[in-house]
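Run log // design_07
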């Protein structure tokens, strides 16, 4: 899930009013190492880790895959109160990076002949949802994937208020979609693009319909387990390795523990807009394999790289997002093109990007947020740390 710009502006105020639930248990220590110890660019990547801490990040998981090997590190703390250091084996929520897995699953099902991207989504949706969500019976699966469906956004200010007052607790994809029953579409199908998390909850329902498995179950059994990704989780169950989550609502260095709110927001079944959990090591490995044609057919991989220009106003800080394809963003950075996705729940944030020219993949997931942190992490300049001495 990616928080809407309007909601982001109001969220800081709302979170100061939220009561913080006491930590009930300590996040277990996760003593492990990932990647290689003697990566030639280790000092460069450590500078990025240090910069994240300097910006106020409580904890983060960072992995960089290059032709020379893989560098992976835990940064800061997984649990502030109990002073548990974050290691490469701790996991974090990845937010909208989950959409990459949804797109991969849909393309896998197209390869198996179970559906076609240009089929109308209504063909595979339960009648309740096709009938009550405007445009759901007209938009194609492709238009759900590239945000050109016009379907209304379920994640709104009202939704966040309900999460904060505990009237929404770990709602499933179906439950969240019912909140937009009867709402008008934002525009006619295919008229333009506008980011909507609802699209990917509908894709979860389509996966369930054509496979007979839950969307999380299909991804686990057909994408994660067969490829050896042990620290990627598509599940409503929380792994013991999950870090706590923190938010600095006033940008003053005081971090509120909002772990329970995070889990309530995207902890329900089949939340493919933002509910997946990972460490950066397996997230980077998945994305690198996806981008280099190791998970899908050549035709499917080519479809992932077919970008159309973003016409929605994404704001000044994200104007380097230049294209959207099937669950993927294309960035124009100082180091060239990067392909992947940003992700935000509220406190947990993730990103994974592949630089095709340099054959470099970065995955960064953090357990804390503030306006200051977000501005740094979502700037295109952060990628300079990967290629230049700073």
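design_07 sequence
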């Amino acid at each position: 899930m990616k928080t809407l710009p309007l909601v982001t502006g109001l969220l800081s105020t709302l979170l100061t009013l939220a009561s913080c639930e006491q930590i009930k248990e300590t996040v277990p220590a996760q003593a492990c190492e990932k990647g290689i110890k003697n990566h030639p660019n280790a000092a460069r990547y450590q500078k990025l880790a240090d910069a994240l801490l300097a910006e106020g990040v409580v904890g983060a998981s960072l992995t960089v895959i290059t032709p020379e090997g893989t560098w992976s590190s835990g940064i800061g703390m997984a649990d502030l109160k109990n002073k548990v250091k974050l290691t490469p084996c701790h996991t974090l929520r990845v937010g909208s990076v989950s959409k990459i897995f949804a797109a991969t699953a849909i393309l896998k099902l197209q390869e198996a002949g179970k559906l076609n991207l240009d089929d109308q989504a209504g063909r595979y949706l339960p009648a309740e949802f096709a009938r009550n969500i405007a445009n759901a019976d007209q938009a194609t699966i492709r238009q759900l994937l590239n945000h050109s469906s016009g379907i209304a956004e379920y994640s709104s200010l009202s939704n966040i208020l309900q999460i904060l007052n505990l009237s929404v607790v770990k709602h499933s994809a179906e439950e969240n979609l019912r909140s937009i029953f009867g709402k008008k579409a934002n525009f006619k199908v295919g008229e333009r693009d506008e980011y909507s998390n609802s699209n990917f909850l509908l894709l979860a329902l389509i996966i369930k319909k054509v496979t007979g498995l839950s969307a999380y179950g299909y991804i686990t059994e057909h994408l994660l387990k067969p490829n050896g990704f042990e620290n990627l989780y598509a599940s409503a169950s929380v792994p013991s390795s999950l870090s706590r989550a923190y938010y600095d609502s006033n940008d003053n260095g005081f971090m509120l523990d909002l772990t329970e709110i995070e889990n309530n927001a995207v902890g329900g079944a089949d939340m493919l807009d933002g509910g997946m959990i990972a460490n950066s090591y397996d997230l980077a490995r998945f994305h690198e394999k996806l981008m280099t044609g190791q998970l899908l057919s050549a035709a499917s991989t080519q479809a992932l790289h077919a970008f159309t220009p973003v016409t929605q106003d994404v704001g000044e800080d994200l104007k380097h997002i230049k294209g959207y394809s099937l669950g993927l963003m294309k960035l124009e950075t100082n180091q060239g093109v990067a392909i992947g996705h940003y992700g935000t729940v509220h406190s947990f944030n993730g990103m994974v990007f592949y630089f095709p020219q340099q054959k470099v993949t970065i995955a960064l997931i953090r357990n804390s947020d503030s306006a200051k942190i977000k501005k740094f992490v979502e700037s295109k300049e952060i990628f300079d740390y990967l290629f230049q001495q700073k």
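The two ends are 32 Å apart (CA to CA).
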